[in-house]
Design a protein that fits this description.
With 254 residues, the chain is of the alpha+beta class. Helix content is 47%, strand content 20%. A 6-stranded antiparallel beta sheet has the order 5-4-3-8-7-6. Strands 1-2 form a two-stranded antiparallel ribbon. The longest helix is centred in the last third of the chain and has 25 residues, at 229-253.
Length: 254
């Protein structure tokens, strides 16, 4: 019998497998007992999934129990290559070297931001950022730069959702976010004022494709004692805007 409500059928075993992988990603390693307890699953169920993944090379057994294996990089690398033009990778690296801070390229998928590439200058501060990390668009400079240039219907869909506060500086009021997005479109860059991490500021600039659709955003992040004043409001915005302009021109005519 067909699905009467028109929604695809969710496969319970597939959902269980994904929950196991997500738990291992967040924890860095767990035993079968720990996974079963955390996910409220039978040990036999966890055992079957874990050992199948291990036999295929997606998990490895270690002193912590089971961890994600290097074969995961094959999947992740394929996805990264699909969404990350080599030109953008090169320019992000150059920005990290020139500013000596962390530079990153972020894209949007299903209304959330995804860190697709990060590059670290010699003075870069390591925070809770990694390739593949998902985060709400409203908390970061790159995320807000993307949100400002999404098609109106998609932008409003994101704005109608919940806006979680990551720090006391996070803007969570929908109308305040909407007003900031108008300012971002006027200035062509966004600023993160310790909204995702205390002590961290960032500047983000959108990257548009040849059809004037948002491709992603490049941002530079650094500690508040260095990213302030004219560095925050003039030097870094001008630098990234110039790089973004070059990327857009080269992508349009390559």
């Amino acid at each position: 019998m067909g699905d009467t409500n028109g929604s695809p059928r969710r496969i319970k075993s597939d959902i269980t497998l994904l929950r196991i992988l997500q738990s291992l990603q967040q924890s860095g390693g767990q035993t079968i007992t720990e996974l079963a307890d955390e996910l409220s699953l039978a040990k036999s169920t966890v055992h079957a999934h874990v050992h199948t993944l291990a036999e295929e090379g997606y998990l490895i057994e270690s002193e912590n129990g089971f961890e994600l294996g290097l074969r995961m990089l094959d999947l992740g690398g394929t996805v990264q290559d699909r969404y990350l033009p080599e030109l953008i990778r090169q320019k992000v690296d150059e920005l990290a070297i020139e500013t000596e801070e962390r530079a990153q390229f972020v894209v949007e998928q299903d209304g959330v931001g995804v860190h697709l590439y990060c590059s670290y200058g010699k003075n870069a501060v390591q925070t809770n950022v990694w390739v593949g990390r998902h985060f709400p668009l409203h908390i970061s400079a790159a995320g807000k730069a993307i949100l400002a240039y999404l098609p109106e219907e998609r932008r409003e869909s994101v704005l109608q959702g919940e806006h979680v506060a990551f720090t006391e500086h996070t803007i969570t009021d929908t109308e305040a976010i909407r007003a900031e997005l108008e300012e971002i479109r006027a200035n062509e860059y966004a600023i993160n004022q310790q909204e995702s991490t205390r002590g961290l500021r960032a500047v983000g600039v959108p990257i548009m494709n040849r059809d004037d659709e948002i491709l992603g955003a490049i941002s530079i992040s650094g500690p508040t004692h260095r990213i302030k004043g004219t560095v925050l409001h003039e030097e870094i915005p001008d630098l990234i805007l110039g790089v973004a302009n070059e990327i857009e021109l080269r992508l349009a005519f390559q």
